[in-house]
Amino acid sequence: MTQQSKPTTTATTSTDTTNSTDFTHSTSTAAATSTPRSAHADEPTSSSVSAAPASRSRLAAPRPLGERRLWPRSFADRLTAPLPGLRGFARLAREAALRPGPEGLADIPRLPYEPAPLPRVDADTIAVSWAGHASWVIRIGGLTVLTDPVWSRKILGTPARITPVGVPWSELPRVDAVVISHNHYDHLDAPTLSRLPRDTPVLVPAGLGRWFRRRRFTSVTELDWWEAAELGGVRFDFVPAHHWSKRSLHDTCRTLWGGWVLTAPDARRVYFAGDTGYGHWFSRIGDRYPGIDLALLPIGAYEPRWWLGDVHCDPEEAVRAAQDLRARRMAPMHWATFVLSAEPVLEPLTRVRTAWEKAGLAREDLWDLPVGASRVLD
């Protein structure tokens, strides 16, 4: 990409002047039918989204770790596109459009899978290892951080994994923190999380803390968009995404969704997008957090576009997102693991490579890792 010139905890009371709405004691409710704004709109339509950055000069002070907060009953006013209605579900069922045909599945044996030992790192090294889907092992600032850890062979509503987990659980170092992007089953996996010690710090979207506390996790920090927490000198900022949340019949958009910017003590940054469609948030994140060294961006689960285009990037949009972020490097994810949509299983990789080349970006800055592989930031 184009170039730009056992841990301790820090808990500071927030004095964020960029957030004109305080969600800490919010009791407002948002109707599930609230009108979303355009995914490319410049300004949000709801005052509850006014937490968007007002300036680049100052980030929010980190919030206290483990803080218990009250949240709105719904985050539907954060949607950037309408959710599908009954007609959409009927069309999906009629067209049987969420699985590739036999030809699209024929390349499963060719999916890149090259497990290798995790690199040895020190506190000054940043390294990423792709376990598959949106699960990364990030070594940053002396911490080991898991993103959306899913080590299960199968998740609710999908066929089994088409590639094995790239990093055996037994080979993980001590996990210092977990970040969750949203509550969909392919990102929030109860069997995997049950393997963790219950005092593992978890950082989650607003409204999702209850799910973890019910499972006896004792260090749960919930954040709204543009809020942050700090652990062992590493800053964790929760940032917007074009997505949604749902885990059961009656909890649509009851918890928030988003991505994470991890900033090391030396100011190097890794951005983990979680699940997201393409839209205006990427440029705002790039403005707010300049100098992102590596963007972990989703490139799969995008067909059919009429169904998934608002909530999942396709490969070309992921490359545009990396450019909007002004990230120095991009590592694709959210493909080659579960069959969640109709595109051929190998297509995301071929398309992202083509889009990267067409954009005139340096080939060495596209970290298209096999499942199980690692890279170390210079």
From TrEMBL:
<feature type="domain" description="Metallo-beta-lactamase">
    <location>
        <begin position="132"/>
        <end position="334"/>
    </location>
</feature>
<feature type="compositionally biased region" description="Low complexity">
    <location>
        <begin position="46"/>
        <end position="64"/>
    </location>
</feature>
<dbReference type="InterPro" id="IPR001279">
    <property type="entry name" value="Metallo-B-lactamas"/>
</dbReference>
<feature type="region of interest" description="Disordered">
    <location>
        <begin position="1"/>
        <end position="65"/>
    </location>
</feature>
<dbReference type="GO" id="GO:0008270">
    <property type="term" value="F:zinc ion binding"/>
</dbReference>
<feature type="compositionally biased region" description="Low complexity">
    <location>
        <begin position="1"/>
        <end position="38"/>
    </location>
</feature>
<dbReference type="InterPro" id="IPR036866">
    <property type="entry name" value="RibonucZ/Hydroxyglut_hydro"/>
</dbReference>
<protein>
    <recommendedName>
        <fullName>Metallo-beta-lactamase domain-containing protein</fullName>
    </recommendedName>
</protein>
<dbReference type="GO" id="GO:0070290">
    <property type="term" value="F:N-acylphosphatidylethanolamine-specific phospholipase D activity"/>
</dbReference>
<dbReference type="GO" id="GO:0005737">
    <property type="term" value="C:cytoplasm"/>
</dbReference>
<dbReference type="Pfam" id="PF12706">
    <property type="entry name" value="Lactamase_B_2"/>
</dbReference>
<dbReference type="InterPro" id="IPR024884">
    <property type="entry name" value="NAPE-PLD"/>
</dbReference>
